[in-house]
Sequence to fold (418 residues):
Amino acid sequence: MLQSKLFAKIKRDIPADAKNISHQLLLRGDFIEALASGIYSFLPLGWKVHKKITQIIREEMDKIDAQEVHLPVLQPKSLWEKTMRWNTFEPPLFKFKNQHGKLFTLGPTHEEVITDLASRRISSYKDLPLALYQIQIKFRNEIRPSGGLARTLEFYMKDLYSFHISKEDLANYYEEVKKAYFKIFSRCNLQALAVEASTGSIGGTLSHEFMILSETGEDKVALCQHCNLAANIEIIGKSEHCRSCGNKLEIKNAIEQGHTFNLGRKYSSVFNVNFLDQSGKKRTVFMGCYGIGVGRLMATIIEVNHDQKGIIWPKEVSPFDAHLLVINQEDSKIFDKAKKIYQILIKNGFDILFDDRFAMSAGEKFAEADLIGIPIRILVSKKTFSQEAVEIKKRDSTQTKMVKIKEIVKYLKKELHV
RNA sequence: CGGGCUGUAGUAUAACGGCAGUACGCAUGCUUUGGGAGCAUGUAGCCUGGGUUCAAUUCCCAGCAGCCCGACCA
Fold:
């Protein structure tokens, strides 16, 4: 991608309305733009990152044998009355009527839809276990959206639902999902912590929140260094001591980034998701559901991975593989060399942002590159031209390194592990 | 929804009861080019409605919008 054609207006000033560092950097780098409170457009840079994150999630879901589906956002009232959540779901549903006066909601989650669907397709123990997921937009009528992408009224969520013949089978799968979640967060360069949590509007018998420790987090988690107990402070009450070993608890700020629920038979019994076991006896399935907010994850990655100059994207979620900059480009030989290097890189399958812009000082190009945070910067200049090389600098380091033009492809393959 | 704060150009801001200013951006030209360049000429703005007043961007009221705290959440 030529940066001269990129749909992005990178801003030098910090937007007055943004307080969170991730919100500031997303706006300055023109990854997103607000339409209204809690409602954002994703611009090309931001949407590329969003797609990278969903790709990681897809890969990890596929590894635990979950199959991707796409369920409706528009959901009829009747479905929500079955679970008694039409008037009780928190935050309240976005509700409206169609032309015939029939009531609908914009789905804030999909337990009703998926369980209803499963009820017509599961009839035998041979149909189980089953895991279905989607990465899809959710609408939540929050009292107060905040922090840019941290809490929005509409956002993409990966929601996974699993169906099992027994409590034990569900418990085993639940652990597999937890492992997949840790993998997803670690690929985003985040350290996650699974903590015991309350089950809220979703319900069920047990739940874990996936917390990313961060000063800017809105949640507080209690940690026991002695026995590794970790819980949302919501569920430990006023106690300052670990309930399993009595050690003093440590309280830390964290961002809730995912939530897994053991639903038991809460939904399956309402929708009659039954099957015949090997002895021909009718039984009701056990269910789990598991969510990750994609937009919030994008913000959290920035909260944890940035410096004073801007974002430092982990390579797996970076909008581009590398950022190619040319300076001293008034010398057409140097500009042509940079163009040639760009061609070589894209021919080898790399996704490159090429800062081909003229009439822009070197300092400004560097500053913008640091702001948008692509992990590898490749510079072509007067100095590198004479050496038949490029200068490579990683975003998270101050070191630079000369790499011969002939060696660039090899170098990048090694760096990006492709 | 309760409490607080704020609305001036694309962005960040200043001043003012009497012609609205600066910086960045953007456009054009010339000069510049290894860490947010220089000069010149342009471009573009007082959230909406009502009230007070000779006169309101400024003061008052209402509305609308945004942010922050509370609550809730991925």
User: Anything to note?
Assistant: Chain A has eleven helices and 23 strands. The radius of gyration of chain A is 25 Å. Chain A has a mean pLDDT of 94.
